[in-house]
């Protein structure tokens, strides 16, 4: 009797070997092998090797693939709701794991964990979004909220809404974050201006803005570290 996830193709032996390697040394698997096996869980009776390679080529690697919009995934030949859901659940799980590290210690002393989380969450997003990280008096992360999601090159940010939300949550400090879908994290004049406006609005209310971090596929830029705020 066939194993529940054995495909009705000559890939049975290949998949068993892949599973054995996964159990023995998951780090040793290539990106296409990881995606191949993930897809195999969703499509147990299909050879998923070529589909995995096609997806990685289409989205420029595993980071772009996991972050891809579901509708973009569905446009790839061979993809359906079940396989797209498998990709998105893998992405959501990985983000939750990385985000947990950012909650383990005060953000200002745990900067690398924050950088890793922001890269995973935003670096490959094709739509610009603006997020606010809310911190308590100990600089522990209490909430990560998306304030706006814009067009491919613009996200509307309203100073009043950022401060209003901080007051509702009881935030003592904020870290502003947004991504540049172009991949280049260099700050624009508008990025600097909106940051300074939020700093000014929060100051009389004792809400500190620690930084504004811009994320792109090419890296991250801290406006604080650049001396721009």
TrEMBL record:
The coiled-coil segments of this chain are: none
Q: Which residues form the MPN domain?
A: 107-229
GO molecular function terms noted in the UniProt entry: metal ion binding; metallopeptidase activity
Q: Which PROSITE patterns match?
A: MPN, UPF0758
Q: Which GO terms describe its biological process?
A: proteolysis
InterPro entries, alphabetized: MPN (IPR037518), RadC_JAB (IPR025657), RuvA_2-like (IPR010994), UPF0758 (IPR001405), UPF0758_CS (IPR020891), UPF0758_N (IPR046778)
Q: Which UniProt keywords apply?
A: Hydrolase, Metal-binding, Metalloprotease, Protease, Zinc
Membrane-spanning ranges: none
Question: Known Gene3D superfamilies for this protein?
Answer: 5' to 3' exonuclease, C-terminal subdomain, Cytidine Deaminase, domain 2
**Pfam families per the UniProt record, alphabetical:** RadC, UPF0758_N
Q: Does the keyword DNA-binding apply?
A: no
Q: Which family does it belong to?
A: Belongs to the UPF0758 family.
Q: What's the protein here called?
A: MPN domain-containing protein
Species of the source: Sphingomonas ginsenosidimutans
């Amino acid at each position: 009797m066939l194993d529940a996830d054995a495909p009705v193709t000559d890939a049975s032996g290949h998949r068993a070997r892949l599973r054995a390697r996964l159990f023995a040394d998951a780090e040793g698997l290539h990106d296409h092998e990881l995606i191949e096996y993930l897809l195999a869980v969703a499509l147990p009776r299909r050879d998923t090797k070529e589909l995995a390679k096609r997806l990685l080529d289409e989205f420029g690697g595993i980071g772009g693939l996991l972050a891809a919009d579901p509708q973009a995934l569905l446009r790839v030949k061979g993809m359906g709701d079940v396989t797209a859901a498998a990709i998105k659940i893998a992405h959501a799980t990985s983000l939750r794991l990385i985000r947990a590290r950012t909650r383990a210690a005060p953000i200002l002393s745990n900067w690398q964990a924050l950088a890793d989380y922001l890269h995973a969450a935003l670096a490959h997003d094709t739509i610009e979004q603006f997020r606010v990280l809310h911190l308590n008096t100990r600089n522990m992360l209490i909430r990560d909220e998306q304030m706006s999601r814009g067009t491919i090159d613009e996200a509307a940010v309203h100073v009043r809404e950022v401060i209003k939300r901080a007051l509702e949550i009881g935030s003592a400090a904020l870290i502003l974050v947004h991504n540049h879908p172009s991949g280049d994290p260099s700050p624009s004049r508008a990025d600097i201006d909106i940051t300074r406006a939020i700093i000014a609005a929060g100051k009389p209310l004792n809400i500190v803005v620690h930084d504004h971090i811009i994320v792109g596929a090419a890296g991250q830029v801290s406006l604080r570290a650049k001396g721009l705020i």
